[in-house]
Amino acid sequence: MLISDRLRNIKPSGVRRIFDLARQMKDPINLSIGEPDFDIPEPLKEEGIDWIRRGFNKYTPTQGIPELREKIASHLKKKGVHFEEVMITAGVTGGLLLASLALINPGDEVIIPDPYFVMYEYQVLLMGGIPVFVDTYPEFRLKEEEIVKKLSKKTKLIIINSPNNPAGTVYPKDDLMMVAKIARERDLFILSDDIYDNFVFDAPTCPCMGQLYEKTLTFGGFSKGWGMTGWRLGYAAGPRDILQQMITLQQYTFSSVNSFAQKAAIKALDFNVDDYIERYKKKRDLIYEGLKEKYHVQKPLGAFYIFPEVPGGNGEAFVERAIQQNLFIIPGSVFSKRNTHVRISFAASEEMLFRGIEILNRIG
Questions:
Q1: What's the CATH class of domain 58-268?
Q2: Which tens digit of pLDDT belongs to each residue from 90-142?
Q3: Backbone angles phi, psi at 2, to 5 degrees
Q4: What is the distance between the alpha carbons of residues 237 and 217, in angstroms, rounded to a whole number?
Q5: Which of 208, 169, 184, 189 is nearest to 76 (CA)?
Q6: CATH homologous superfamily for 5-40+273-363?
Q7: Is the distance from CB of 308 to CB of 344 less than 8 angstroms?
Q8: CA-to-CA distance for 14 and 333, rounded, in angstroms?
Q9: What is the pTM of this model?
Q10: Dihedrals φ, ψ of 76, to 5°?
Q11: Cβ–Cβ contacts within 10 Å for residue 177, how many?
């Protein structure tokens, strides 16, 4: 067999069968999307186009252009995030891959609160590490006793994603302080995926791990908050010794990151997206109010997903029934060791949401 040993535990996503079913749908009510339904704001598009026309189309420094790194550093300082170094990455996923390469040895254990973004598990497995899942159901809170009982001498990292995909949870500061205490006592690293930090609905901002613990690698980006999903632009910030290793790894993997998008991102950090977030808060309220009578569901405080428990407790079967009604959603088993919930994205038009709510209440 020519395939490398490291791919033995890497399987195609379980959602593939669902997507195969969905391809048979004509003009579906699509509430599966993991990206904003708004385009990149016009001033930011124009900024990118302007730099293309000015010839800023060559390779950039491996760690990113200095002016964007300085702008991100200033942005993080205002938030109170601890860091020594900043680098630009090919999206948050690119940054997480570099961090995994830099930190995870075969046999290292990585704590992942469940439910979780599916990529965390498979990046750990790709490194030969062992993902260790910590249950956060039903309130999707971080519980000290659940984390402590999963720790071992092999534990190396904890991954935190808040606001959370798929549950829409914003972990309270008390939960994060508890995780920081555990990490400090055992000298663990924390990877904090903050990609949805613009999408916070009931508070001005959300707390983040980087504010509370020095050995945190903070990951952020421009895909969600400014609609730049296709421009593949993110950043990582944290201890200098780790970032320097990640920059070296980037030389031999991604080489460098999208040139003109980096210039547009400088402008993005000064571009106010409050109106966009307010519209998403309205959509959050619409779908939560539309589902709460019939479903056991937590009100999302951030991101743009809602994660209800389905009647009968079989998320995959429920999704198949929804597809038969021309509604496309994702089974919770894609994001969890449980198959009791479904992920619904409210990054869609209000008309689409009303149609989806009607079907969900009919088949629930």
A1: alpha beta
A2: 999 999 999 999 999 999 999 999 999 999 999 999 999 999 999 999 999 99
A3: -85, -15
A4: 6
A5: 208
A6: Aspartate Aminotransferase, domain 1 (3.90.1150.10)
A7: yes
A8: 8
A9: 0.94
A10: -70, -35
A11: 15
Q: Pick from 71, 68, 94, 73: which is nearest to 84 by CA?
A: 73
What b/e sequence results for 350-362 when a residue is b if at least 16 CB atoms lie within 10 Å of its CB, and e otherwise?
eebbebbbebbee
CA dist 262 and 251 (Å) reads 17
What are the pLDDT digits (tens) for 272-327?
Answer: 999 999 999 999 999 999 999 999 999 999 999 999 999 999 999 999 999 999 99
Nearest Cα residue to 138 out of 293, 284, 340, 312: 340
Residue 1, pLDDT > 70, answer no
Cβ count near 8 (within 10 Å)? 11
Q: How far is CA 14 from CA 99, 200, 299, 301, in A?
A: 25, 29, 26, 27
Whether 257 has a pLDDT exceeding 90, the answer reads yes
Segments of 305-363 assigned E as strands: 305-306, 327-328, 330-331, 342-345
Tokens at 311, concatenated: 């009647």
Measured CA distances, 98 to 83, 126, 144, 217, 238 (Å) = 17, 12, 29, 11, 13
Q: What are the boundaries of each domain within the chain?
A: 5-40+273-363, 58-268
Task: Report the C-alpha gap between 38 and 34 in whole angstroms.
Answer: 12
